[in-house]
Each structure stands twice: as structure tokens, then as C-alpha cells.
Amino acid sequence: MNWNNIIQTIVFLSLTGPGIVGNILMFVRLVYTSAFRTEKKPVNLILIHLAFSNLIILCSTGIRDIATVFYFRNFLGDIGCKAVVYLARMARGLSICTTCLLSTVQAVTISPRTTIWKKAKPQTSRQVLTYVFLFWILNILTSSNLLYYITAGSGMNRSGVTGYIGHCYMLPSKHTVKWLFLLLMAVRDLVFQSLMGWSSGYISFHLYKHHKRVLYLHSCRFVNTFSPEIRAAQSVVILMSCFLFFYWADFIFSLYTGSMVSHDSIILNTKTCLVLGYAVLSPFILMNRDVPVAKS
């Protein structure tokens, strides 16, 4: 193994190791809280699903990258390539949908009780499960083309491939199929990111009003305490900023690698870090700010 692979392995393990541990801790903590407390908070189930989606991203991407770094060319095979690439893509979509649901629920939670949006907020865990089920159906269908067009790189003519993911390759597809699935992904991301943008803007506006109120209370020498809803809202805004940064940075790199069919290791490693970044950081942001205390 050369120095480039050693550095790549260190960087990769320094990302996936803490990310997997952080998401497992958040997952176990929330499952324990939901199982042994009489009060069931729908937001806890949303966070459990987010942690689970992040774990799928980290583990599937990790298996693929380990095979790449250590030159295990025949380690995955066709079935393994299809599985890890499909799971990574599907879990990424689940992460987008779940993050959107979290931000929307938080925006509705801090909204005035008289607003019509209160009726749209899930009141029970069963309602959250309905959203989660729909997310799985949507992303299973959106990523289903990968089960046919992804293949292992051994024993094939690579001149006609349209994508390169580790030792897995994307076979050429009909333009109709290609643009249909690209359109589905684009519509999904546009809808859910638009909802994220609305909810994040609303939360930021509410936090600004709260900040002005705090300044007024301080001027009147009142003691201020941050409510659980405000602390959770601040966490969600930080989480949305983190998500948007990694999403659009990854999108730009994906356009570059997709158009240039570049196999440059630096570009691919940077893209891997961007793919993993949100899944690694999100549990630590949520646990540090203690989002589950927000009332649901």
C-alpha cells in the first residue's frame, strides 16, 4: 500500500468511525427514551430514522471504499456493487426527506398555536410512521434503476461506462430511462429542499423575533431562559445549514465527475468526504444541542 492509500485510509476511518459511533449512540439513546418513557414524542421517531439512514450511508459507502482502497476488486461482485451503491443512494434520499420532515415539524412546533399549520403537525408516532413509509416507497422507486445498471468492473469493457463508483460501474442506459430517473431525483430534491428552505426561513425569523424580545427583557432586568423549543429551533437551523453545504458541494462535484468521467483519486476522495460529511456531523449537532427535548 502506497502513501496515498495510507492517507486515504486514515481520512476515511477518521470520518466513518466517529460517524458510526455517533449515530449508534443517538439511535440507542432515542430508542431507549421512546421505549421506557410513557410520553411518546413523534420527533424522537424522526431522529431515530435519521440516525438509521445515516448509518446505512456510512456502512454502505464504507464497504465500497474499503474495497477500493485495499484493491479488493472482486470483493463485491455484481450483487455487492448493486447492493452498496443502491443502499447508499436510497439512504441519501431518506436522509433528505427525514431532515426536511424534522425542520418542518420544528417550524410548526414553534409557530403560534392559532395557526392553521398546527393541524399538519404529526401528533402521534403512528402519523410519523406514515411519512416514513412514504419516504421509503419514494426512494426505493427513485433509485431502482441502479439495481439494473450498476455492475462490478471486472471482465468488462470500460470504454462505454457512464459512471465510476469505486470498483463499481454504471452501464449506459437509454436516454428515456436516464432522464426519467434524473427528473424524479430532481423533483424530489427540489420539493424537499424548498420545504427545508421555507421552514428554516420561518425558524430564523422566529429566532430573530425572540432575540429582540430577549434584548428587551434584559433592558428591563428580567431573567431570560431559553425554552426547549428555542434550543431545538437553533439546532435545526444549524443542521439545515450543514445539510445544504454538504448537499450542494456534493452536487457540484457530482456534475464534474459525471461530465468528465474523472477517475482522479483526489476528486473522488473529496466527493466521498462530502457524501459522508452530513451523516458524520448531524448526530453530534443534535446530541450537543439536545433536540429531542423540544415539545412535539
UniProtKB/TrEMBL annotation:
Spans traversing the lipid bilayer: 6-31, 43-63, 128-150, 179-203, 236-256, 268-287
Superkingdom per UniProt: Eukaryota
GO biological process: response to pheromone; sensory perception of chemical stimulus
Gene Ontology terms, MF aspect: pheromone binding; pheromone receptor activity
Major site of localization recorded for this protein: membrane
GO cellular component terms listed in the entry, alphabetical order: plasma membrane
A family per Pfam: V1R
Keyword Secreted: no
Residues in G-protein coupled receptors family 1 profile domain copies: 22-286
Keywords: Cell membrane, G-protein coupled receptor, Glycoprotein, Membrane, Pheromone response, Receptor, Transducer, Transmembrane, Transmembrane helix
Subcellular location: Cell membrane
Membrane topology, from the record: Multi-pass membrane protein
Family per record: Belongs to the G-protein coupled receptor 1 family.
Name the record gives this protein: Vomeronasal type-1 receptor
Lineage, uppermost ranks: Eukaryota, Metazoa, Chordata, Craniata, Vertebrata
